[in-house]
Design goal:
This protein is α/β, with parallel strands linked by helices. The protein is built from 15 helices and 15 strands. The protein has helices at about 5-20, 55-65, 80-85, 90-95, 105-110, 110-120, 135-140, 165-180, 230, 240-250, 255-285, 315-320, 345-355, 370, 440-455, and strands at about 30-35, 65-70, 120-130, 145-150, 185-190, 290-295, 300, 310, 320, 320-325, 335-340, 380-385, 395-400, 405-410, 415-420. Strands 1, 2, 3, 4, 5, 6, 9, 10 and 11 form a 9-stranded mixed β-sheet that branches. Strand 7 (about 300) and strand 8 form a beta hairpin. Helix 8 runs parallel beside helix 11 (about 255-285). The longest helix is centred in the middle third of the chain and has 28 residues, at about 255-285.
């Protein structure tokens, strides 16, 4: 018989148990595999209609998933976009403007990894972190940490067998999947260095040695808008920018074929690792309860307009792939979604899968109502901004709507405007800003730019 003095303790414990909110069983919450590729365009996939790129595993994923046709970033540069992905905020709010700035403890406390951790998720991170160099807040959050600061190197003689970094990140991801607790939901964020270049290297996009012969017998078609006449019509500061300098060392006529093939080879390496992860999920019995989100931190010029890199508001730079796979939805998804999805929507979406609300400081929205075909009002346009090293990369802001794009180059003051009708001119060939017949549209888009700029703060 229990001593009488223990009854009050037991009674208090029972009362606490009955009054505490019931915790959702682990099985009811899905695991989340978030896959982020660096510098990856929206159109370099078989499922996107590309006739050269080989991406069999991503094509298979897309067939069983929701594919967003119109996904974009709000700033096309690594550290800013990654901060936006973590926090669901525009650069104007999260204020990660350069590669040195770290998250404050308060800011990180409202980022999706920390919120998942607090909700009982087992968390892991593999690859390029991209925000600051110390990464102190992230190291404290993730239960499994294989992140690194800076760019990393595709090949490193100190690495066993000089293994390609993409393959190493695949191995690390599999280790997480094999060791994750079976009774706890998990979120693994994998941030590939590929298909980013190796800055400063003679060979800018070195692939895995297994993929060296891929595309050897293929001739890559010239990049759209790559004729010198079109380059000469660009906003003048673009013609002497860092973007043009990088074009000269990557996409000039002697380099174009091998550079683009290496970019495609790096993507094939990523595709292989995605296939390995999906196979491991099946082996571990987790495939049926794991949501997979695949995307990029921004797009990339492959010589279009005589440019390289990202940074500017053209479609090649700001448009990204976005696949969301939820195996719990049995319905096949044959049509891509056409709504405007943004990188700031990713954190709210991840939180919603975990059953968590979107914090008030986040400016993005969960995409899950669109996936569930829930009737909801959705954005018709969005604000774009890029302010990093304006002496080398002309500063720009923009509004991209379902039909129109308005670009405002901030220098020389009071600014230079461009206007494109994307429904008739998807390659943005013809600037209509000086066309009298579009004066009213220009004024409307200029007004909207001012409104959205204020809302982004």
């Amino acid at each position: 018989m229990l001593p009488l003095r223990l009854f009050p303790v037991l009674a208090f414990g029972l009362l606490c148990t009955l009054s505490a909110p019931a915790r959702e069983p682990a099985a009811a919450k899905p695991n989340i595999l978030f896959l982020l590729v660096d510098d990856l365009r929206h159109d370099t996939f078989g499922f996107a209609g590309h006739e050269i790129c080989q991406t069999p595993h991503l094509d298979a994923l897309a067939r069983d998933s929701h594919v967003f046709k119109n996904a974009f970033v709000t700033t096309a540069i690594c550290m800013v976009s990654r901060a936006s992905i973590f926090t669901g905020q525009y650069e104007a709010r999260h204020k990660i403007h350069d590669f040195r700035t770290e998250f404050t403890a308060d800011a990180w406390g409202q980022a999706y990894p920390q919120l998942l951790k607090q909700a009982g998720y087992h968390t892991g991170f593999v690859g390029k972190y991209g925000v600051g160099h110390k990464m102190a807040e992230a190291r404290r959050t993730f239960d499994y940490w294989k992140g690194f600061a800076g760019q990393g190197r595709f090949f490193d003689p100190k690495r066993k067998g000089n293994q390609h970094l993409t393959a190493l990140q695949g191995d690390q991801s599999l280790e997480f999947l094999r060791t994750a607790p079976k009774d706890t939901p998990w979120c693994l964020s994998v941030s590939f260095k590929a298909v980013h270049c190796q800055d400063g290297a003679k060979r800018q996009f070195p692939p895995d040695k297994r993929d060296e012969t891929m595309y050897a017998d293929v001739t890559i078609p010239p990049a759209p808008l790559s004729d010198p006449g079109f380059f000469a019509s660009l906003h003048e500061p673009l013609q002497t920018s860092e973007s043009r300098r990088r074009w000269e060392i990557r996409f000039s006529p002697k380099l174009f074929q091998e550079t683009v093939k290496d970019y495609y080879r790096l993507l094939f390496g990523v595709d292989r690792e995605v296939g390995r992860m999906r196979e491991e999920l099946k082996k571990q019995g987790m495939a049926g309860n794991t949501v997979i989100i695949f995307t990029s931190d921004h797009g990339f010029y492959l010589g279009e307009r005589g440019l390289a890199g990202k940074w500017f508001a053209h479609e090649e730079s700001i448009r990204i792939p976005l696949i969301i796979h939820d195996p719990r939805h049995e319905k096949k998804h044959t049509r891509p979604l056409t709504e405007l999805a943004l990188n700031i929507d990713l954190a709210p979406t991840i939180l919603s899968y975990a059953g968590l609300p979107t914090p008030g400081v986040m400016q993005g929205r969960s995409l899950t109502p669109l996936l569930e075909k829930t009737k909801t009002e959705w954005r018709k346009d969005f604000f774009y901004e890029h302010h990093f090293i304006p002496n080398r990369l002309p500063e720009s802001e923009a509004v991209r709507s379902e039909r129109w794009k308005y670009i405002h180059w901030l220098a020389p003051k009071p600014g230079v405007e461009e206007l494109y009708d994307l429904s008739k001119d998807p390659l943005e060939r013809s600037n209509l800003a000086s066309d009298p017949s579009h004066r009213e549209t220009l004024a409307t888009m200029r007004k909207r730019w001012k409104e959205l700029k204020q809302e982004a703060r």
